[in-house]
Amino acid sequence: MKIGISCHHTYGGSGAVATELGKALALRGHTVHFFSQAAPFRLGRYSKNIFFHEVETMNYPLFESPYYTLSLASKIAAVAFYEKLDVVHAHYAIPHAVSALLARQMLEEKCPGSNCFRIATTLHGTDITIVGADRSMHDAVRLGINKSDGVTAVSAYLKDETERMFSPRVPIEVIPNFVDTSVFRRMPVRETRELLGIDGGMVVIHISNFRPVKRIDDVLAVFGNIRARVPATLLLVGDGPERNGAEAWVRAHGLGDSVRFLGKIDDLVPLLSLADLMLMPSNAESFGLAALEAMSSGVPVVATNVGGFPEFIRHGVDGFLHAPGDVQAMSSSAIALLEDDRLWQRCSAEAVTQARQYDTALLVERYESFYRELIEGS
Ligand code: GMT
């Protein structure tokens, strides 16, 4: 198949899923064309089946802000015309699904009656729960969903939320996030430990884009409780609006030596291999890709019992789930895991087993079948 993938290039789960999907499809012999403002952060080196089309916006004195949606639509239309794309897969309802719709109209206008590409849209969460919930964007999101040929959501929770908020006319198929279990596995950590200057003690990790929904304050509060009982280092991976406040909190609490702000890092495997525990106290999380990647690396996760987390983290089996904001309960579970080696070993092994259910190979096949149904149904 010839597949176009339109996604956010920035640090975040939707871009990671879109890019890993495209790379896996390319390995299976499909031709994949990525459309994005810049090379997606996980794209890495090129392969013979992968093409990247940077979408450049046009600067003109009358345009107060560049019209990315139109530029993207024009780029998709041009590439679809020359490359005869079968499917354009939009990751995020807006602007990507709406741009794909526009691109299709552009093509139909240019060559009436031509056999146009099908549009698959994957909803990742914040496009529905945050952007879609904003009145100003609601109708645009609804259009993107209803005019797509097929729609997937990354969890049953997100499917239900989308149906509740948009009453869509199209069925929504759940295809969860996935992880390459041959890549996300524990590797030797001596060098990483030395590079980071971590001499001993437990290692706790949090990975996110530091937005309010991630509840960074709770990560720090739980870590403060852990530190009162167990020697430990907290690795904070990622960056975003809550980082400055977090740095101030760490300074005010005298934890500067044990909290490391690492910023945005693409290669997570060495860090996850070092970690004993991941904290994900999000307010809402449609799936929680970072937690799945941690589990695949044998890292038990203490997370919240919201969104997609309960669909793959089994409380007391491979991690622990508590109500958002329940810092005490999260701290108790975290300390139990770090103090009780038998509990840790059991949860770590179960986490690896559970992650295998979400291996890339299995889920990429689901996407392939999904595309085929769209093409055959046209
Ligand atoms: O929250 C993020 O990390 C970024 C966000 C995005 O849109 O890129 O991630 C969303 O999509 C991921 C991939 O499907 C999911 O694993 C995340 O749970 C989801 N984030 C939220 O729902 C807050």
Give the helix level as a range of percent: 40-55%
Number of domains: 2
The biggest sheet amounts to: 7 strands, parallel
- What structural class do the secondary elements suggest? alpha/beta
The second-level CATH architecture of the largest domain is 3-Layer(aba) Sandwich
Query: What integer is the average pLDDT?
Result: 93
CATH class of the largest domain: Alpha Beta
- Strand-and-helix sequence, N→C? EHEEHEHEHHEHEHEHEHEHEHEHEHHH
* CATH third-tier fold name of the largest domain: Rossmann fold
β content, as a range?
15-25%
Keyphrases for this structure?
single chain, about 375 residues, alpha/beta, Rossmann fold, 2 domains, seven-stranded parallel sheet, six-stranded parallel sheet, 15 helices, about 45% helix, about 15% strand, elongated, binds ligand GMT
Describe the structure.
This protein is α/β, with parallel strands linked by helices and 378 residues long. Helix content is 46%, strand content 17%. A 7-stranded parallel β-sheet has the order 3-2-1-4-5-6-7, sandwiched between helices. It has a 6-stranded parallel β-sheet with strand order 10-9-8-11-12-13, with helices on both faces. Helix 1 (13-27) links the parallel strand 1 (2-6) and strand 2. Ligand GMT binds at residues 12-15, 17, 124-126, 154, 177, 208-209, 213, 284-289. Ligand GMT binds next to helix 1.
